Amino acid sequence: MELRVVDHPLVAHKLTLLRDRDTDSPTFRRLTEELVTLLAYEATREVRVEPSTVPTPVAAAPGVRLREPRPMVVPILRAGLGMLEGMSRLMPTAEVGFVGMVRNEETLQPVTYAERLPTDLSGRQCYVLDPMLATGGSLATAVRFLVDRGADHITCICLLAAPEGIDRMRELLAELEVPTTLVVAAVDERLNEQGFIVPGLGDAGDRLYGVAD
Ligand SMILES: O=P(O)(O)OC[C@H]1O[C@H](OP(=O)(O)OP(=O)(O)O)[C@H](O)[C@@H]1O
Ligand SMILES: O=c1cc[nH]c(=O)[nH]1
Ligand SMILES: [Mg+2]
User: Fold this and answer.
1) Helical (H) or strand (E) element with 181
2) What digits encode the pLDDT tens for the residues 31-40?
3) How far is the C-alpha of 109 from the C-alpha of 91, rounded, in Å?
4) Which of 4, 48, 103, 149 is labelled catalytic?
5) Binding positions for uracil (predicted)?
6) From 146's CA, which of 15, 22, 96, 181 has a CA 20 to 30 Å away?
7) pLDDT for residue 46
8) Which of 76, 132, 192, 203 to mutate to test the pocket of ligand 1 (most atoms within 8 A of CB)?
9) Taking Cα atoms as reference points, which of 179, 141, 139, 180 lies closest to residue 159?
């Protein structure tokens, strides 16, 4: 798995505001979208295109267009949903599939409670969205799921990652033949005893949408 940490002052500035516990929910949502759009620019560097020529008012201009099958964007519910709009803004013609996952707060194991994806993802490039990579269990499960259905190129976009989660992803995905890239705004210090990223930003889902039961 290739790791790309996006080193850009605007990303760092927005991430700092996002982390602040005094940032309210509407601002948190807006910053999340803005950050994703910036990360997506880097994350879509390998998106597949094909030659396409268009007529300008002056002459024919050779260019490119996104290749079929269209890329698939997969937000991991709940918190990943906050990243969808920012991603769609950059790649509006991508298709969207959904996976719903929640971590068991004691065992930290992910539980999949929803899935709405094509059964056949052969030849598809997939962009998985989840703001937080903590133990790596949720993201690795989602990636495996997509690869099992035939996806042949996976890019994960996260806002924050813990070193433990990156190591775990590498371990769990080691035998996959499919190229996998992780694009993040920052790699934080560590996980705490509750599996939260330190210093992190708290519970991304709660900060986006309010406290869940
Ligand atoms: O790397 P992991 O240890 O698996 O943890 C990360 C997961 O935890 C959070 O979701 P959560 O379970 O809080 O669900 P939510 O999105 O509904 O808040 C986060 O959005 C990731 O999906
Ligand atoms: O720090 C963390 C870890 C998992 N999920 C979150 O939302 N935040
Ligand atoms: Mg949560």
Assistant:
1) strand 180-187
2) 999 999 999 9
3) 32
4) 103
5) 197, 202-204
6) 15
7) 97
8) 132
9) 139
Instruction: For 148-158, write each residue's pLDDT tens digit.
Output: 999 999 999 99
Contacts of residues 165-170 at CB distance under 8 Å and 24 or more positions apart, as own/partner, are 165/133, 165/134, 165/135, 165/136, 165/139, 165/191, 166/1, 166/3, 166/133, 166/136, 167/136, 168/135, 168/136, 168/137, 168/140, 169/1, 169/133, 169/136, 169/139, 169/140, 169/143, 170/1
Angle at 128 between CA 202 and CA 135, to 5 degrees: 45
- Residue 65, pLDDT > 70, answer yes
Query: Does residue 116 have a pLDDT over 70?
Result: yes
Return the axis-axis angle of helices 9-19 and 25-43, rounded to nearest 10°. 150
Asked if residue 65 lies in contact with residue 50, where contact means CB atoms within 8 angstroms, the answer is yes
Question: In the prediction, which pLDDT does 211 show?
Answer: 82
% of the chain surpassing 90 pLDDT:
97
Instruction: Give the integer Cα–Cα distance in Å for 107 and 195.
Output: 10
Q: What is the ipTM of this complex?
A: 0.98
Virtual CA dihedral for 144, 145, 150, 151, nearest 10 degrees? -70
The CATH code for residues 2-50+65-198 is 3.40.50.2020
- Ligand nearest 138 Cα, by number? 1
151-175: average pLDDT: 96
Is residue 4 annotated as a catalytic residue, yes or no?
Answer: no
For residue 125, give the nearest of 42, 173, 67, 75 by alpha carbon.
67
